[in-house]
Amino acid sequence: MSNSMDAKRKLSGSPKINKVSLFGRVKASLGQHIHQLSNSFFELWKTPFATLMTIFVLGIALSLPTVFHVVYKNVERVSGQWDSASEISLFLKKDISEERVQVLINKLGLYKDIETVTYISRHQALEEFKEMSGFSKALNYLDENPLPAVLVVIPVKEAMNTAGNKLLVAKLEREQDIDLVRVDIDWIEKLQAIFYLVVDVVIGIATLLLLSVLLIVSNTIRLNILNQRAEIEVLKLVGATNSFIQLPYLYIGAWYGFLGGVIAWLFSFVLVIWLESGVMNLTDLYQANFELISLSFDGTIILLVTSALLGLIASFISVKQYLVTIEPK
Question: pTM above 0.85?
Answer without folding.
Answer: no
